[in-house]
Specification:
By secondary structure, the chain is α/β, with parallel strands linked by helices. It is built from 17 helices and eleven strands. The protein has a single domain, classed as Alpha-Beta Complex (Amidase signature (AS) enzymes), CATH 3.90.1300.10. Strands 4-6-5-10-11-9-7-8 form an eight-stranded mixed sheet, sandwiched between helices. Strands 1-3-2 form a three-stranded mixed sheet. Helix 3 runs antiparallel to helix 4, helix 11 crosses helix 12 and helix 11 packs across helix 13. The longest helix is centred in the middle third of the chain and has 23 residues.
């Protein structure tokens, strides 16, 4: 399979070629490897290669699998994959051996037939909205190599946008799937809390804020992967929402008349730049023309809880480091962790157990308030970010020049719309529905009540039919060939 043929298909399309006998699974893997080798030097999306294992898996995979031999990349965070290292882009973990077994989610990827080619870049401990770890170096946005692909799943998004793979694993503790999807012109769904298994050693990663899923070029790929990975896992304490209809079936459902709330102002009070705001307003107007009931949405009082989220998130990072000290056999040296990580560890030592439980109680209060607010609407429409992606190096969470107040202002000035839905557990999706004057993608976000992932996918599929983005993405990938 030639590279120009390979990049013209999403994951479901590649699977159909194999199932129809037109292409062998190993041909897909070789096309992906060729693409990675050609582009990774300038994009730096892939930080660990498992090419030989992927080739062997593709040779043996049954063609009847849902995604036989379809190339896939795992983010270097959360999920252990047999044969690959799990380092969270932290130099301190670089000497650990590769995993010997798959985590539950990785086992589901393999069961679907995916060929796991390696790991993608992430900021250290997945803690930033840019992907620039000191150890691995920055990942660059395929749309503009001077810009960030977002974070923390920036390596995954850059790999998909550049055509290395049709879909890649992402994690989302505060927007880390949706922000890179917006920055790179892709589909990024954060599923409902508890829908997709995590672990293996923790079921409530990042204090219960995290969800794992994928970043994709098409809505149908996101739905397909959710069908293949969602479901109960005996090691998890989190709830399972069921029974349910297949998520792929939701793509063919006629979109019902919806009550849609629109919020340009973030819970923090920030508003987007003109280009982003105009993209959201244009989508709101199109929904109104289509017969949906569109109205302005006001957040409930007290919905903005940055201090409490800091307690939950930073404590989770500090505890994860403490947990892994037993694996490494020592504490991290000062030059083995970045400034933001050190700040997380320092702050976590100052907080008490009561502080943590108090923060979780506030998160529960916010969850209840948003559930009440969503009784008046079916879907919330809002930006994914306030602006276009920052330039590489603009946000510093790494060096001795790091300042927590400056970092917080810049990071959450860029992405103040996303972490609310990690608090509430609601599903939220970013779609590439806007384009800037300079040709950069603009993400538009939708959120629904907890457990209504299918409703978001129905809406997303309707937009993909009426406002397709595949030609823009294909044009970018073809340019990168030369």
């Amino acid at each position: 399979m030639r590279a120009d043929e390979y990049i013209s298909y999403d994951a479901a399309g590649l699977a159909e070629l194999v199932q129809q006998g037109e292409v062998a699974p190993v041909e897909l893997v070789e096309a992906a490897i060729e693409r990675i080798e050609a582009l990774n030097g300038k994009i730096n999306a892939v930080v660990e290669r498992g090419f030989e294992a992927a080739r062997e898996a593709a040779i043996c995979v049954a063609h009847t699998k849902p995604l036989p031999g379809v190339p896939f990349l795992a983010k270097d965070m959360n999920v252990e994959v047999a044969g690959l290292h799990l380092t969270a882009s932290c130099r301190w973990l670089s000497a650990l051996p590769p995993a010997s077994i798959d985590a539950p989610l990785a086992a589901r990827w393999r069961s679907a037939g995916l060929a796991i080619l390696g790991r993608t870049n992430t900021p250290e401990w997945a803690g930033e909205f840019v992907t620039e770890p000191t150890w691995r170096g920055p990942t660059r946005n395929p749309w503009n190599l001077l810009s960030s692909p977002g974070g923390s799943s920036g390596g995954a998004a850059a790999a998909v946008a550049s055509g290395m793979v049709p879909l890649a694993h992402g994690t989302d503790s505060g927007g880390s799937i949706r922000v890179p999807a917006a920055a790179c012109g892709l589909v990024g769904l954060k599923p409902s809390r508890g829908l997709v298994p995590q672990g293996p050693h923790l079921d409530e990663l990042y204090g219960g804020l995290n969800c794992d899923h994928v970043i994709t070029r098409s809505v149908r790929d996101s739905a397909l992967l959710l069908d293949l990975t969602a479901g109960p896992e005996l090691t998890m304490r989190q709830p399972w929402y069921g029974p349910r209809e297949p998520y792929q079936r939701a793509l063919a459902v006629d979109l019902p008349r919806l009550r849609i709330g629109v919020a340009l102002r973030a819970p923090s009070g920030l508003t987007p730049i003109d280009e982003v705001g105009a993209a959201v307003e244009e989508i709101a107007q199109s929904l109104a023309r289509a017969g949906h009931a569109v109205k302005s949405f006001e957040y409930p009082p007290g919905i903005y809880i940055p201090d409490q989220l800091a307690v939950i998130g930073f404590s989770a990072t500090a505890e994860e480091i403490e947990y892994r000290e037993a694996w490494v056999g020592r504490k991290p040296a000062p030059d083995e962790i970045e400034a933001l990580t050190r700040a997380s560890m320092d702050l976590a030592q100052r907080w008490t157990a009561v502080d943590y439980v108090r923060a979780r109680r506030e998160a529960s209060r916010v969850t209840g308030a948003m559930a009440k607010a969503f009784e008046e609407i079916d879907v919330l429409l809002l930006p994914t970010t306030t602006s276009l992606p920052p330039l590489v190096g603009a946000i510093d969470g790494r060096t001795d020049a790091f300042d927590l107040t400056t970092w917080t202002t810049m990071s959450y000035g860029y992405a103040p719309y996303v972490d609310l839905f990690n608090v509430t557990g609601q599903p939220a999706i970013s779609l590439p529905l806007g384009v800037s004057r300079d040709g950069m993608p603009i993400g538009v976000q939708f959120a629904a009540p907890l457990g209504r992932d299918a409703q978001l996918l129905t809406l997303a599929a309707d937009f993909e039919r009426t406002r397709p983005w595949s030609s823009r993405l294909s044009a970018l990938q073809e340019r990168l060939l030369y």
